[in-house]
Amino acid sequence: MKVILFDLDGTLIDSTEAILESFDVAFTSLGDKTPDDNDIKKLIGLPLEIMFENLGVDKNRVWDYVNAYKMHYRKISRFKTKLLPFAKEAIIEASKFARLGIVTTKTARYSKELLEYFEILNYFEVLIGRENVQNPKPHPEPILKAVHLIKANKQNTWMIGDTCLDMISAKEAKIKHIGVKWEYEDLHSMRKCAKIIKDNALEAVRYIANNI
After folding, report:
1. What is the number of domains present in the chain?
2. Distance between CA atoms of 124 and 100, rounded to whole angstroms?
3. What's the whole-number mean pLDDT along residues 9-38?
4. What is the rounded end-to-end Cα distance, in angstroms, of the chain?
5. Same domain as 177, residue 141
6. Which residues form the domain of 158?
7. Residue 60 sits in the same domain as residue 104
8. Which of 66, 179, 202, 203 gets the most CB atoms within 10 Å of its CB?
9. Which one-letter DSSP state was computed for residue 46?
């Protein structure tokens, strides 16, 4: 049976508003100017500590910012996050011919809460979040851990994601991969990372259904 691993942000959900608001709260509460929204968006998909470092935060203070971010994010995430168009349809259709998992750099705890909120958690057999691995995407560890836990055959396993982080992780883990279009990764960059790019997760699922 096929296995499909989904990224979360930009692939199944849109939590941009919650992410940007939480970054703003973290920066302002610690006395700094909030970076431009576009600079933050370009980094979504990376672990929070790396995002803050890339936005100019000193390494010695990074975890203060991460904690401030998380304290606010957990209060607003469910109400300022939405499923992307065709995401639920993609999950339901995929579940008819594949076993499903989530591989994300988002905290697994918050990811689980969101999936429960949208009533789709039960479709997934495994959820790998930031705290479940030492090395996040683009390292292959998160995907390899999901493959191990779900006892998947790599030849029948696919990753669907919206950034080069997802595609590189899948390549390094030696599984198949499909990119989907979203604002966190420009199309020019994505074409360097993925040979197959679809408009959304549902199109990606239908492609997988029709290909060995």
Report:
1. 2
2. 5
3. 95
4. 11
5. yes
6. 2-14+81-209
7. no
8. 179
9. B
For residues 50 and 26, give the distance between their C-alpha atoms in angstroms, rounded to a whole number. 14
Q: pTM for the full model?
A: 0.91
Burial 34-71 (b: 16+ CB within 10 A, else e): bbeeeebbbbbbbbbbebbbebebeeeebeebbebbbe
Read off the pLDDT of each residue in 20-49 and give the average, rounded to a whole number. Answer: 94
Residue 140 pLDDT level (bands cut at 50, 70, 90): very high
Q: How far apart are CA 23 and CA 57, in angstroms?
A: 12
- CA torsion sign for 48, 175, 161, 164 is positive
**Type of residue found at 144:** L
Handedness of CA 149, 155, 159, 164 (dihedral sign): positive
- Give the pair of three-digit tokens for residue 80: 């300022």
Q: Are 134 and 47 in contact (CB under 8 A)?
A: no
- Measured at the alpha carbon of residue 44, what is the angle toward residues 42 and 160, in degrees to the nearest 5? 110
